[in-house]
Structures are given as structure tokens and as C-alpha cells.
Amino acid sequence: MSPAKPNFGVYTPLVTFFQEDESLDFQSTLAHVKRMAEGGVAGLVLQGSNGEAPHLDHAERKALVRAVRDHLNQLGFPGLQLIVGCGAPSVRETLSYIFESRESGANFALVLPPAYWVAAMNVQVIEDFFRDVAAQSELPILIYNFPGVTGGIDITSDSIIRLAQTTPNIIGCKLTCGNVGKLQRITSATLTDSFAAFSGKSDFFLPALVAGSNGVIAALANIVPKVHVELLQRYERGELKAAQELQAKLSHADWALTKVGIAGVKAVVSHNFAYGTGRGRRPLGNITIASLSQDIVGSIQEVVDLEKAL
């Protein structure tokens, strides 16, 4: 029997907060976890791109997953699922991250294609990589397609469909590439009760739902989880026009958010919800809300005001 896929819903790719000396800020990160859980998300993605996974060592990754899992249990959210980023350049290192994540309380592993030797990463090499990882993985796997962090590697729908149909331990994918046509091809060619294809950005959340997405894994959910959940509920109730109105606001806010980077996401959270700072680990540096233009802040503030009204 194939492993169960992630639950349908909104997932926040959690940012990781740091102290002034760039050590982990557990207090702020766990305050963020609490707000996400109370905002109605179905799960969290830890140590993805927004979580600055490449900037964390093995010990920090394990400590963060365990702290988040324990905190959710203490808050009364034991069923909230954890997807943990485990991408690495080799099969061996990827499996090491997966083992550590499972031991720390993860439910699923999110795996990027290996990208150090970009020129060698043809279709066969990439598919073999995922099959080799899946064969030994102690967690069910989601394929993470994000050309922006893998030297332009863009996994095709053909590859994802082949892997989904032949590899039971691969139970989903996250498409940050923004290709709704790719998502539609994947959802129409896979069993939706056993394979979860997620849209990877807020700006195509509603179109992706129409195309069969299992929900969304979106950076903007760090700021406005309730707004994302509200859009999902409007869609499920068949209130398409009302959902479109929310989608328009999310699209403008998401576009603004792409201009500020990960540290900027944290700066917006800090300014509006009074925890954490806009500090990333170098070379990302530190951003404050005062350093952002009004054009950027305005689009984001509109959805923040909605969030606080829900």
C-alpha cells in the first residue's frame, strides 16, 4: 500500500528567525508556528527555500523540526503535518537529511533535484536520483520543482508523472515554477487520492485549485495564513467571484513580496505581528520595514489588514 499523501489545504513554508548574532531564534520561530496553526493551515514546510535551508547545519535542522513538532503537540495541534526540506547534491546526503527529519518528527520530505553538476542533470539522471532516494527513504517524498534555486533545472510533467506512476514512495510535488499547465497535466494523469500536486506560489493559488492542486505551499502564507484559508473555503463553497476577489489581492501582494526576498518576508512579519526581525543569515543580511518602498508595502498591507479582520 502506498503511503498517505499530505492533507488538502494551505501549507506555510516557514521562515526561520535569527538572533542578532545569526544564531537560531527559537522564541520568535515558535511564536510564528503558533500564529500559523491558529490561522488554520493544514501544515508547515520547514527548511525549504524560505526557511534558509542551505544556511542551516544538520544539528540546527534537527533541533528546529523537533522544537516545532513538540510545540504543535503542546498547543493541541498534533495532526498538523510537517513537510521538511531534505534536498542535497547527492543521494547519500539527501537520505541523511531524511533520516534526521523523521527522527525529529517530520511527516514528509521535500526534495529538490541535485543541482551542483547542472550540466550533467539530464532527464534520466534526475529521475534515477528520485527513484534511488525514494527506494531508501524513511519518509514519503514530494518532488520540489523550483528552477530559481537549482540553476534553472525545470522538471517536466512527463518526469513527474513517470515517477508518480512507478514509485509508490513519491506521493506529491511542489511546483514553484508557476506552470499551471504542468500542474493540470500532473493532476489529470495521477491518482488524486494518492498523489498531491501543490501550487507553490500565492499568485496562482485559485487557478491551481481549478487545475486540481492539493492546496498551496506559499511564502505569503507566512504573513496572511487566514486569507489563504479564506480563499480556499470560498472556492470549496463554490463562491468563485468572491474567491477571485481575494486572489487578485493575493497576486498583487505576492508580486510585491518577490521584490523583498526572504529577509523582507521576515521584516513584514516582525512589523505587523511583533515578533522576530528581518535578519537573514549572510549573505542575505538584514531588512527593516522602513527600507521598503511604499509601493511594496501598500500591496502587502492590504492583505495584512484583511488578515487582522478575519
UniProtKB/TrEMBL annotation:
GO molecular function, one term: 4-hydroxy-tetrahydrodipicolinate synthase activity
Keyword terms, alphabetized: Lyase
Residue stretches in coiled coil: none
Entry keyword annotation includes Zinc: no
Chain sites annotated for binding pyruvate: I217
Keyword field contains Lyase: yes
SUPFAM superfamilies in alphabetical order: Aldolase
InterPro entries in alphabetical order: Aldolase_TIM (IPR013785), DapA-like (IPR002220)
Active site: Y144, K174
Family recorded in the similarity comment: Belongs to the DapA family.
UniProt-listed PANTHER family: 4-HYDROXY-2-OXOGLUTARATE ALDOLASE, MITOCHONDRIAL, DIHYDRODIPICOLINATE SYNTHASE
Protein name as catalogued: 4-hydroxy-2-oxoglutarate aldolase, mitochondrial
